[in-house]
Design brief:
Radius of gyration of chain A: 17 Å
Number of strands of chain B: 5
Largest sheet of chain B: 5 strands, mixed
Strand content of chain B: 5-15%
Number of helices of chain A: 5
Order of helices and strands of chain A: HEEHHEEEHHE
Distance between the termini of chain A: 58 Å
Helix content of chain A: 40-55%
Structural class of chain A: alpha/beta
Number of domains of chain B: 1
Helix content of chain B: 55-70%
Structural class of chain B: alpha/beta
Oligomer: heterodimer
Number of domains of chain A: 1
Chain lengths: 146, 148
């Protein structure tokens, strides 16, 4: 095989790998955290991955809850509408998060909110909104510094 | 004759390369502040409807001109400046959320992101206000990353 072809293949693999880990897959070996980000027309995969990183750096307990209870984040508009989130009981390890490109803090709060529902389900509790709205509000107060 | 041809070819290649680099630089600068000499790259996300990306760029340039030390802190600790409200509201909107909404900006802990209140007007006072906001939250980011 020619050197040029090898360089091209290596470059292509590097490019594909970079795109996957930037937009479609969050992986942290150290914390055993692996989350697929399913794409949608919102193109918010990058925001979701940055939001997960914010959780890891600023609220490790919430990060661990996410990693232990969620393996897929759907970025489409679900029952929560545009800029909202959703948890479907028939798919308990997935959450739906609608976040446009710029809404990093919203994305963090929605992820925590929907993870709260995933925890409620895993503990065989009723799906209750007040607890999860409180979790969303708490994380916003933790991460936003004036 | 060959030498002249080679010089001519080399000249066109260099010119093409410079133009190519200039085009890339221009494209980067549409969406980001880029200062290659100081290894400074900051993504600037403007609010098309109620914001003004230009005054963010002007504010960064003013920091570079007036306060080299903070400019260095900014370049090392801020990756993204986003024209966006600092909202603490999730679900209902309380009095606390109203106070948060009225702030000039905020720092998102655990990231290298500063949110800055969208402002359409392009004036000296707005740029000056943005300078102070960006400087304040760049220092917050520096503090966070030093402590963690």
């Amino acid at each position: 095989m020619k050197l040029k072809t090898i360089i091209f293949i290596v470059f292509l693999l590097f490019l594909v790998n970079s795109i996957i880990f930037k937009y479609f897959y969050y992986y942290n070996k150290q914390n055993n955290c692996s989350i697929k980000i399913s794409p949608s027309f919102e193109f918010s995969g990058g925001t979701i991955i940055r939001a997960i990183a914010v959780l890891k750096n600023s609220s490790f307990d919430d990060y661990q809850d996410l990693c232990q209870n969620v393996n897929t984040i759907n970025t489409r508009i679900g029952c929560g509408g545009f800029g909202g989130g959703c948890f479907y009981q028939n798919s308990p390890n997935s959450i739906t998060v609608s976040a446009s490109g710029r809404d990093l803090t919203y994305a963090v709060s929605i992820i925590v909110h929907e993870t709260c529902h995933a925890i409620q389900f895993s503990e065989n509790r009723d799906i209750s909104e007040p607890e999860c709205y409180a979790a969303g509000r708490r994380i916003l107060k933790e991460i936003i510094q004036f | 004759m060959n030498i002249f041809q080679n010089i001519k070819d080399a000249f066109f290649q260099v010119t093409f390369f410079i133009m190519f680099i200039f085009c890339i630089y221009s494209v980067i600068n549409i969406f980001s502040y880029y200062d290659p000499i100081n290894s400074c790259y900051i993504r600037v996300e403007g609010d098309v409807v109620s914001g003004n990306r230009k005054t963010v760029y002007d504010a960064i340039k003013l920091i570079k001109k007036e306060d080299k030390k903070t400019y260095k802190v900014l370049c090392q600790n801020v990756e993204r400046i986003s024209e966006n409200e600092c909202s603490t509201a999730h679900g209902e909107f309380t009095e606390d959320d109203k106070i948060a909404w009225e702030q000039d900006g905020c720092y998102v802990r655990g990231s290298k992101v500063i949110l800055i209140k969208p402002e359409k007007i392009d004036s000296e006072s707005i740029i000056r206000k943005r300078v102070e906001t960006i400087k304040k939250y760049a220092l917050y980011s520096e503090k966070f990353w030093k402590e963690n």
